[in-house]
Amino acid sequence: VDYALYKPSPVCRVSFSTFMEHSRLNLSDSPKSVEFQMRILERSGLGEETCLPPAIHYIPVEPTMEAAREEAEMAIFTTIDDLLSKTGVKPRDIDILIVNCSLFSPTPSLSAMVINKYKMRSCIKSFSLSGMGCSCSPISVHLAQDLLKIHPKSYALVVSTEITTPNYYQGKERAMLLPNCLFRMGCAAILLTNKSEEKNRAKYQLMHVVRTHKGSDEKAYRCVYQEEDPEGKVGISLSKDLMSIAGEALKSNITTIGPLVLPASEQLLFLLSLISRKIFHPNGKPYIPDFKQAFEHFCIHAGGRGVIDQLQKNLELSPAHVEASRMTLHRFGNTSSSSLWYELGYIETKGRMKKGDRVWQIAFGSGFKCNSAVW
């Protein structure tokens, strides 16, 4: 039906100079770690207006459970309030609630927190998804789609967010310092329905969700991994193989989604290329279908400049096709699973979305997963 995005208060903004000042004070005994973060920031694609929660602004950082709950309430409640105001739907009208947050999974759950705040019905079907990384929004949408198939005349509320307060790494390992430089505050709330009377005002229609999971491969499973460093400090370690693993996951996802969305001419070329490589040229370059014939808009997960660059190259997209992803990364940073919706919001704000346009949302996440949603 519609969606809403969280826009943090200006007091939460973290300029490069502020971030680096905090890093120097928090890592005063490790100047090389500070220099490493500065180099990452300069090449990250982030701008000067990205935001971190209040607890991360303290020196030293105070990642308490209370502070994490406050961040969750601030982001989630503000976004849901905005969505309910835009749609006119009342909290007690919601039949299905799905909240996804990868790294903060308290008890009671985040979905229970929402139910308590908005006094939702006792018969609501609620779910909290955690540990599924930046690609969890398409997973949540897919779950909502499946539930709406068996619950007629229902509203489903999907909330995608990441709570950064308890996950700010305070050690010196470079592979674990990377997320500090990239991840920022963000939240999106999406209202879906199967009610026929909502068809005329619904912004988008969900056509396909395609999910690819490479968790059976050990390298893929460990390329985004939460663990302790030698000093016992917990952080998210990003492997050097991340981009190549993401590329392999994307290929598998493309193979599945291609027949669903590509015109017959592109499917035929792809099939001929596949046969040629199997029989005549096993080491030949695979044919990359022209997905620009299937979609007008691309929402590529704003995981970092390298992720966007790699997908632009692999899918042979123009700078205009990845503009929404680059600008979302610049303005908001990597907001994890909600980034796809910030990109959709950018396209709408620029007045580029037209009736009948097709959108491809592509996200990557730990596990390792590549998930797509087509609208």
UniProtKB/TrEMBL annotation:
The keyword Nucleus does not apply. Its EC number is 2.3.1.199. GO terms for cellular component: membrane. It catalyses: a very-long-chain acyl-CoA + malonyl-CoA + H(+) = a very-long-chain 3-oxoacyl-CoA + CO2 + CoA. Pathway: Lipid metabolism; fatty acid biosynthesis. It comes from the Eukaryota. Keywords: Acyltransferase, Membrane, Transferase, Transmembrane, Transmembrane helix. GO terms for biological process: fatty acid biosynthetic process. The keyword Metal-binding does not apply. Its main location: membrane. CDD domains: CHS_like. GO terms for molecular function: fatty acid elongase activity. InterPro entries: 3-ktacl-CoA_syn, ACP_syn_III_C, FAE1_typ3_polyketide_synth, Thiolase-like. Signal peptide: none annotated. Residues 1-278 form the FAE domain. Residues 296-375 form the Beta-ketoacyl-[acyl-carrier-protein] synthase III C-terminal domain. Belongs to the thiolase-like superfamily. Chalcone/stilbene synthases family. This is very-long-chain 3-oxoacyl-CoA synthase. The lineage of its organism: Eukaryota, Viridiplantae, Streptophyta, Embryophyta, Tracheophyta.
